[in-house]
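Comment on both lines for my students:
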Amino acid sequence: MNTGRPAVAARIKDNWCELVESVKQSASQAGRSADEIRIVGVTKYVTADHAIDLVHAGCRHLGESRPQSLWEKSEALREIDGIQWHMIGHLQRNKLRKTLPLIHCLHSLDNLRLAQSLADELDTQPPRGSLPCLVEVNVTQDTTKTGLPPTELPKFLEQLAPLKRIKVIGLMAMSTLHATSEQIRHEFAQVSELLVAMKLRFESTHDLSQLSMGMSDDYREAIAEGATIVRIGSTIWKGVEP
């Protein structure tokens, strides 16, 4: 019996409650309601037991960046009702069949080849219907980052329109690593403005209502610039061994 588990679970709950309060404060400072913002708890660096503790603390949206980790944790948490898994990393086409039935949302759609493979695989899973997806965009100057350049986004959204199984719900973005708060806000503001422009242009084909922006180091800036989803990992696991 692991006598440390209750203490770990208590720490995770404290961290979660502090994060929820911080998100509320950030939303209030931005003149927004915290109800507009969904927290996705990123579990990629921790065990399934820690993920279970996080769910018991109150987090129902969990994010993973590797399909294999998502498979393992979703199996470990399968008896807990109400969990929605988010695939926040890149999804290889050879992992689609096993991954799609498990996820609520894909945050990293950025190429037509993957989109077509998603649509084809979803056609073999009739009960599933459509898959909510966020298109990943890269507004930074970092060429090592993934995501579409903003100039390519309109064409990509046009190409996605015929794929009815792909439900494009918004955009996802990351800020420049180690950037200043001012630079981060500028980058996130660009993404927010891009979403508004795409909403106007594609209102008849896509329901672009979500912005997945912000992680542990920059979620406050993301909320200030309109994020509706924040992806938080290290803040939740502060003081917790993996």
Q: What stands out?
A: The longest strand covers residues 166-173. The beta strands are 38-42, 61-64, 84-87, 103-109, 131-136, 166-173, 210-213, 229-232. The chain has a mean pLDDT of 94.
